[in-house]
């Protein structure tokens, strides 16, 4: 053994021994394990073996490269075609000539050169140093020389790679770099152990080694990552660009690919790649097309195809396929995040461990004059690794979450388009959308919390081990204390979940109430029921608020416990330690308090992580169930492409069912053969199976038996219009290219020309969601145009005439069905008996069976079914014929004014949407764009939020309590430092120490409780005040506000924004306030004990503020754009599921899947860049904080020991350890608050809506019996909807005597509905007046006016509740009166038969009552009101003829003495009136008895003629 070696018994033998031989075994009793550990320690941590290993690896690499180079050169010289030019070909690979180098290449070359220089310097030192150890000197010299040569060769090789454009490093070099990193790591570990463990003179020979180890470690780490990736950084432009272009051209638009895709390792490590985007965002607000697209490997199209390829095969019988597939796709990413989490956890505890060494050093117990610098260096490295590991963990976990969404959403969408009808019914559209919106988000969010579950026990274990070393057996008390806190946290989380569930349930009820109120606001205004609905929603809110208060106070309790944990557990632990006689010094107590602070996080997050895991497992089960749902079978219909043969559609012995499993058969014994070019009509009563027959041809039903054969392509027009959100042109083209000539022809034959002329933007007019701004007739014709434009072979038209008037229906039948489609095979489901003379064949259906088939005259007498339909039609025509209209008489009367539309309105609500022409003018968007604030949230909004509840006094009190609480925490630590100082050691009084420490702890807990509960109370009061304000403002808003504001815009404020104000803002604001005060306390303590740090604080604060502003400019816009791009994904998903039959009929699934992918990518790129910018900010702020902290630690080492005391070093370090995290979180969460404060801004926008006139005016009350006579005088009535828009009613003057029945008719957009709205003052007249029984209605309060009139709307509106609450919502009538009104409207028996009688349930929109019963209930309301003035808006349009007769009878008998003004869309209705008012282009053109108008040339005569003439001339 060489003299310099330490005896084998010494613990530090391995790290300082210069021997190359294993030390002799001293103790025969040594176990195998201890010998093995000794061996491993010697091989990996002793200088000589380390050098031997690394030199061996170097020599192997050099030999390999030498052999490789010689072989290559020999082959080239000896081969037949050897030439001079071949010498210049690369040794590594041949590549195209155009290339460029990235920063990765430059950094790799720099690292190799720096290492070469470093080892050359070390080699020079080794040769110049004289040593008595000859053997050791020779080993040392050879080692450094080999290292220098190896790295010089590698540097040359890297330059060679650039010259010959090599894309990847040779495998031998990559293996070398990986091995080299681990050996250098052992060198560094040995150096650290030597530095902190041994005496000064023993380390003299290692100064060069240790310096080189520390410098080369980060360089080796970088080369390690380069080796793993393999890329050299040489980019081959020509070869790679087409590949990228191919992948990205579909999805990019104007945006370029994200910088992440081509970023170097260094750029990814520090998020440098996102700098250009943040710079752009800082200069001006970011726009959607400025956000780069995702990397090709992260895009939805790639991820969903990977998901499909990994899906378990059918023979695997997997019960949880989604979980299995996700694990197969992402196990590497999961493993990598786990690795990062472990690294972070390990370095977290370096700080507390070093406190002891720092305190010892400052108290004079030092092993080396440089030990202090080594400690600061170790602290800096540990902090650096902790910051990088933390933020890369967050980034990779969020990226993994994003990839899971990118994988699942397209797969769920594709599945949704394949579902069978019954599977779709089982899940429901809303639930399917929830799978995509909620469940995938739940899985995505889980990724951040997943590792906390298994790491918590390990973190607590490590913490307890460190505490045990400090405090011995008293750690048991700390353990039990932590268990108690953990149990409380678990119980608290469970309790919070219960409260949260109840809050959400009640919030759903409130939102349902608000939604119902917004949907039926017109009815509520007509009936003057605002007060009732205000109280109803406030009742929902009161219940919700009760649970919300419980939730918030429960969360506050948890926060109080968590914030008090370190102090509480310190108190009991130190108390136990004193009882057990453990000596407490500064190092011990501050190590312990730092560990307690560290253990707060895992204990707090564990219960929440468990809950998230259970929710994620439920989501996975739901997704499994959906993904395993029954799909539509493709083989139920035999499809023949092309048009060979005579038969277009054939069904032989077909039996079909809508249900996949039920024995119920919806269609039975269907035998059908339709020849090519035939026009077939299917008729029958409601529910006879007409639409089902079309569905069976499309293959949408389960085929129980039989055969279906379809020859040619199929187009389908559904009974319920399915229109996409987009322009009219996009809806008609439906993915096909534009053929202008054919397109114009289609527009013409579908009678859309006139409609498009009326719209300023023509076919570029945007259709709202679900076609909200189109009438029923327009939607139906756009749908028809879509089908005609596709130019298919077979057309299935399901009741296309139901929503259009007589004239338009006739035109469509003539020009489209019998014109453009005359050579096509057309199957038409219809109720219009008029057209049946002109079809090739009629199929009559009853109960799912074809009962009659043939031509009109053939089947008229062969059975009762068809005859019954014809008789019902003839009866409805009798009234018109009684008017004495002779066919062909008034045909020359001009019927179309310039402003009128081409169709009479019959669709629900059609008159409402188009009686307001100015709303579709000036812009292709009917709905106004939502006002989006940009830039910073104004200080006024902060002031409003902070002072709304208790004014400035409340804010001041909370601030004072927060500061006192922080002061109490500082006091406890100052007391610890004071009592554990060396001067106090001699006169230390344990009981006094513990008493004062416990008192401070109690005071601190009281202060934090008071502060937290006050803050919660303040947050709750503010939320409630804002809610009351917005509800009041909305109820007082005029009807024009609801016409131009989509309900979704109001609902988002009542749901998402209100939730932010209810829960998130109070929580975040409270935490941020506490964090900023904590930062202040850290600065105070650090500057007090390390005064030069003061000079760093101001630059640090300035940098934090600057970084915050720089980051927030982009983050704010990214957050807004994330919300903006998320809505289209959800909307498209629900839109597609709703229209899945149409999509499948046109075989358009692939186009829709592509569009869905575009939308998913557009949303995910916002998400990706948003969380990337979060980590960009986090790394910079935390590194700044760590750097300042390490400099302040350096100052404490440099300052003389008489200035800084050991106990103050411990105090400063225990506070400073958290500086980086607290600094980042306070800035980051203040940014979140600014983003959430937008919710207050949005709510505030809607609390200042201009109000409609007063509801009640005390000194202008009408007489109690008004209107007594029902006399109406209209004088020069003019109406415009908004200032500076054209007049809608242009000076109408007329008188109606009390008791008269007046029918109002006119074409679409003529102003009929506007006239009724003016009576109720939903629209205020801009000129003229309406006088009823001598009183000008404009002077009355709105409720005094509206409550005196009766109205039966076209759509029977029922609210969720009971029969009583629907007939008499305000509760002003007795049960007897209600029963009488129900008896008059023929509903008494129905209601009396129900067990709950008047309290019988009415579902949302009256879904559990038939349409006829709903209309009768609405009639009951009017009967109860006993008004002398009644308005009817085609009250019987949506009921069958039997119910129609009943209602007309009731109106004749009960309202005999009333004045009735009735808007009529159907001519038979007005023939019974005393007078008819014809409104045309806002003017009263005709006002007379119907018989008088029919005897002369008149507009009314022309309308009647059109109705009577429907079946002629087609």
Descriptive overview:
The protein is an alpha/beta fold. Helix 4 (103-128) runs antiparallel to helix 5 (134-163), helix 14 (371-416) runs antiparallel to helix 38 and helix 20 runs parallel beside helix 39 (1206-1216). A hairpin with a 2-residue loop joins strand 13 and strand 14 (849-854). The model is unreliable at 1-15, 81-97, 198-205, 238-254 and 884-927 (pLDDT under 50). It has a six-stranded mixed sheet, sandwiched between helices.
Task: Give a quick summary of the entry.
The protein is α/β, with parallel strands linked by helices. Strands 8-11-12-6-13-14 form a six-stranded mixed β-sheet, sandwiched between helices.
Write the layout of secondary structure elements.
Elements lengths: L12 H4 L15 H14 L1 H32 L20 E3 L1 H26 L5 H30 L7 H27 L9 H23 L4 E3 H16 L12 H5 L5 H9 L16 H11 L10 H28 L1 H13 L8 H46 L4 H7 L1 H43 L3 H45 L1 H7 L2 H50 L6 H42 L10 E3 L6 E11 L9 E9 L3 E6 L5 H9 L3 E10 L2 E4 L8 E2 H6 L6 H10 L3 H6 L7 E2 L8 H14 L4 E5 L7 H15 L4 E5 L11 E6 L2 E6 L1 H5 L3 H19 L27 H5 L24 H9 L3 H29 L2 H4 L4 H46 L3 H6 L2 H43 L4 H45 L1 H6 L3 H50 L7 H11 L2 H27 L26 E8 L9 E8 L4 E5 L6 H8 L7 E6 L2 E2 L5 H5 L3 E3 L8 E2 H5 L7 H10 L3 H6 L7 E2 L8 H15 L3 E5 L7 H14 L4 E5 L3 H4 L4 E6 L2 E6 L1 H5 L4 H10 L6
Parallel strand pairs: 3-7, 6-12, 6-13, 8-11, 11-12, 17-24, 17-25, 20-23, 23-24
Antiparallel strand pairs: 1-2, 4-5, 4-7, 9-10, 13-14, 15-16, 15-18, 18-19, 21-22, 25-26
């Amino acid at each position: 053994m060489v003299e310099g070696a330490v005896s084998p018994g010494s613990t530090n033998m391995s790290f300082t021994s210069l021997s190359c031989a294993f030390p002799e075994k001293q103790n025969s009793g040594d176990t195998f394990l201890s010998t093995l550990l000794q061996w491993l320690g010697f091989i990996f941590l002793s200088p000589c073996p380390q050098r031997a290993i690394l030199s061996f690896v170097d020599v192997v690499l050099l030999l390999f490269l030498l052999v490789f180079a010689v072989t290559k050169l020999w082959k080239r010289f000896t081969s037949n075609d050897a030439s001079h030019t071949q010498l210049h070909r690369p040794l590594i690979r041949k590549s195209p000539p155009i290339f460029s180098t990235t920063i990765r290449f430059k950094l790799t070359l720099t690292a190799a050169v720096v290492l070469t220089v470093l080892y050359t310097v070390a080699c020079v030192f080794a040769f110049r140093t004289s040593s008595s150890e000859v053997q050791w000197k020779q080993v040392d010299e050879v080692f450094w020389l080999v290292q220098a040569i190896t790295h010089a060769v590698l540097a040359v090789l890297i330059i060679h790679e650039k010259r010959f454009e090599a894309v990847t490093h040779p495998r031998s070099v990559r293996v070398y770099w990986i091995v080299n990193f681990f050996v250098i790591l052992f060198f560094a570990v040995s150096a650290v152990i030597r530095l902190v463990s041994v005496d000064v003179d023993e380390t003299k020979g290692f100064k060069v080694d240790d310096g080189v180890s520390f410098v080369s470690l980060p360089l080796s780490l970088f080369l390690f990552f380069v080796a793993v990736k393999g890329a050299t950084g040489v980019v081959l432009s020509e070869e790679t660009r087409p590949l990228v272009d191919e992948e990205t051209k579909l999805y990019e638009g104007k945006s370029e690919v994200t910088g992440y895709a081509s970023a170097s390792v260094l750029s990814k490590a520090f998020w440098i790649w996102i700098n250009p985007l943040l710079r752009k965002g800082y200069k001006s607000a970011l726009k959607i097309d400025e956000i780069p697209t995702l990397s090709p490997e992260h895009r939805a199209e790639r991820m969903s195809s990977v998901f499909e390829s990994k899906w378990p095969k059918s023979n695997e019988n997997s019960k949880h396929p989604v979980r299995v597939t996700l694990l197969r796709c992402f196990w590497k990413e999961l493993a990598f995040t786990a690795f990062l989490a472990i690294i972070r956890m390990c370095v977290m505890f370096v700080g507390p461990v070093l406190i002891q060494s720092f305190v010892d050093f400052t108290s004079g117990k030092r092993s080396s004059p440089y030990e202090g610098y080594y400690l600061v260096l170790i602290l800096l490295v540990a902090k650096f690794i902790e910051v990088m590991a933390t933020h890369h963990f967050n980034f990779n976990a969020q990226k993994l979450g994003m990839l899971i969404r990118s994988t699942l959403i397209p797969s769920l969408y594709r599945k949704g388009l394949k579902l069978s009808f019954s599977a779709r019914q089982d899940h429901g559209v809303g639930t399917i959308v929830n799978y995509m919106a909620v469940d995938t988000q739940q899985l995505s969010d889980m990724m951040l919390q997943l590792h906390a579950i298994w790491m918590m026990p390990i973190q607590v274990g490590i913490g307890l081990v460190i505490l045990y070393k400090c405090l011995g057996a008293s750690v048991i008390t700390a353990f039990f204390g932590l268990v108690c806190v953990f149990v409380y946290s678990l119980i608290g989380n469970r309790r919070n979940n219960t409260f949260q569930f109840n809050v959400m349930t009640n919030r759903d009820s409130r939102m349902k109430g608000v939604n119902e109120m917004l949907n039926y606001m017109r009815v509520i205004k007509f009936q003057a029921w605002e007060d009732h609905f205000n109280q109803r929603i406030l009742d929902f809110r009161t219940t919700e608020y009760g649970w919300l208060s419980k939730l918030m106070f429960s969360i506050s309790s948890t926060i109080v416990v968590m914030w008090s944990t370190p102090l509480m557990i310190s108190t009991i632990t130190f108390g136990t330690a004193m009882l057990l006689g453990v000596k407490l010094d500064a190092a011990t107590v501050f190590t312990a308090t730092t560990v307690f602070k560290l253990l707060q996080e895992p204990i707090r997050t564990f219960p929440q992580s468990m809950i998230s895991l259970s929710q994620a497992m439920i989501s996975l089960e739901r997704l499994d169930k959906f993904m395993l749902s029954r799909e539509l079978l493709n083989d139920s219909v035999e499809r023949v492409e092309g048009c060979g043969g005579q038969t277009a559609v054939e069904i032989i012995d077909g039996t079909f069912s809508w249900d996949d499993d039920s024995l119920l058969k919806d269609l039975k014994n269907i035998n059908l053969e339709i020849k090519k070019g035939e026009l077939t009509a299917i008729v029958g009563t409601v529910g006879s199976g007409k639409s089902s027959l079309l569905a069976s041809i499309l293959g949408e039903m389960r085929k129980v038996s039989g055969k279906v054969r379809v020859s040619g392509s199929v187009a389908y027009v559904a009974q319920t219009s399915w229109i996409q959100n987009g322009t009219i042109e996009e809806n008609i083209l439906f993915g096909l290219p534009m053929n202008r000539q054919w397109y114009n022809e289609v527009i013409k034959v579908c009678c859309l020309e006139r409609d498009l002329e009326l719209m300023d933007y023509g076919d570029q007019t945007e259709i709202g969601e679900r076609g909200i701004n189109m009438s029923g007739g327009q939607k139906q014709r756009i749908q028809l145009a879509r089908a005609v434009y596709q130019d298919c072979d077979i057309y299935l038209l399901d009741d296309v005439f139901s929503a259009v008037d007589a004239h338009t229906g006739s035109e469509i039948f003539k020009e489209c069905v019998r014109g453009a489609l005359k050579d096509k095979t057309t199957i038409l489901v219809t109720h219009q008996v008029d057209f049946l003379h002109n079809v090739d064949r009629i199929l009559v259906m009853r109960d799912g069976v074809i009962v009659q088939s043939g031509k009109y005259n053939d089947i008229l007498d062969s059975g009762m079914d068809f005859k019954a339909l014809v008789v019902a039609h003839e009866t409805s025509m009798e009234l018109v014929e009684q008017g004495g209209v002779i066919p062909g008489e008034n045909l020359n009367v001009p019927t179309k004014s310039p402003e009128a539309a081409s169709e009479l309105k019959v669709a629900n609500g059609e008159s409402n949407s188009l009686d307001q022409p100015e709303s579709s003018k000036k812009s292709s968007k009917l709905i106004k764009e939502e006002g989006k604030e940009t830039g910073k949230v104004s200080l006024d909004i902060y002031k409003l939020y902070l002072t709304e509840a208790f004014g400035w006094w409340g804010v001041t009190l909370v601030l004072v309590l927060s500061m006192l609480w922080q002061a109490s925490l500082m006091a406890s630590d100052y007391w610890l430092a004071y009592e554990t100082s060396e001067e106090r050691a001699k006169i230390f009084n344990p009981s006094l120490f513990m008493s004062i420490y416990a008192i401070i702890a109690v005071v601190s807990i009281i202060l934090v409780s008071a502060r937290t509960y006050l803050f919660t109370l303040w947050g709750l009061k503010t939320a409630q005040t804002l809610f009351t304000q917005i509800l009041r403002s909305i109820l007082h808003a005029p009807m024009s506000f609801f016409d131009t504001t989509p309900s979704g815009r109001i609902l988002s404020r009542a749901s998402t924004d209100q939730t932010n104000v209810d829960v998130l803002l109070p929580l975040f604001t409270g935490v941020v306030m506490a964090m900023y005060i904590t930062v202040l306390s850290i600065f105070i303590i650090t500057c007090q004990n390390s005064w030069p740090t003061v000079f760093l604080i101001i630059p640090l604060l300035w940098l934090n503020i600057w970084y915050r502003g720089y980051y927030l400019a982009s983050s704010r816009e990214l957050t807004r754009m994330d919300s903006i791009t998320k809505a289209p994904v959800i909307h498209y998903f629900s839109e597609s599921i709703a229209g899945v039959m149409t999509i499948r009929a046109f075989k358009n699934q692939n186009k829709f899947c592509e569009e869905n992918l575009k939308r998913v990518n557009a949303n995910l790129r916002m998400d990706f860049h948003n969380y990337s910018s979060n980590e960009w900010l986090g790394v910079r702020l935390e590194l700044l904080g760590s750097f300042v902290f390490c400099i302040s630690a350096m100052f404490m080492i440099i300052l003389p020991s008489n200035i800084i005391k050991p106990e103050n070093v411990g105090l400063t370090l225990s506070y400073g350890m958290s500086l980086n995290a607290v600094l980042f979180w306070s800035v980051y969460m203040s940014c979140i608050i600014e983003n959430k404060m937008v919710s207050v801004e949005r709510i505030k926008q809607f609390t200042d809506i201009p109000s409609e006139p007063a509801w009640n005016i005390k000194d202008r009350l009408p007489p109690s019996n008004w209107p007594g006579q029902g006399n109406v005088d209209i004088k020069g009535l003019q109406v415009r909807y908004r200032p500076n828009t054209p007049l809608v009613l242009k000076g109408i003057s007329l008188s109606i005597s009390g008791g008269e029945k007046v029918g109002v008719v006119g074409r679409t957009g003529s102003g009929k509905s506007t006239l009724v709205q003016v009576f109720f003052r939903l629209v205020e007249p801009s000129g003229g007046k309406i006088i009823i029984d001598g009183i000008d209605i404009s002077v009355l309060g709105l409720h005094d006016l509206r409550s005196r009139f009766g109205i039966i709307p076209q759509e029977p509106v029922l609210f969720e509740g009971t029969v009583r609450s629907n007939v008499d919502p305000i509760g002003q009538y007795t049960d007897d009166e209600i029963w009488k009104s129900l008896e008059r409207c023929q509903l008494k028996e129905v209601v009396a038969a129900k067990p709950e009688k008047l309290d019988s349930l009415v579902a949302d929109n009256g879904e559990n009552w038939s349409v006829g019963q709903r209309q009768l209930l609405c009639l009951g309301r009017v009967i109860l009101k006993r008004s002398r003035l009644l308005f009817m808006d085609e009250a019987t349009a949506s009921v069958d003829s039997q119910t129609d007769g009943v209602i007309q009878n009731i109106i004749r008998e009960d309202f005999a003495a009333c004045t009735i003004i009735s808007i009529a869309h159907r001519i038979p209705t007005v023939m019974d009136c005393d007078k008819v008012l014809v409104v045309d282009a806002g003017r009263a053109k005709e006002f007379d008895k119907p018989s008088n108008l029919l005897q002369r040339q008149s507009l009314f005569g022309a309308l009647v003629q059109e109705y009577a003439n429907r079946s002629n001339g087609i």
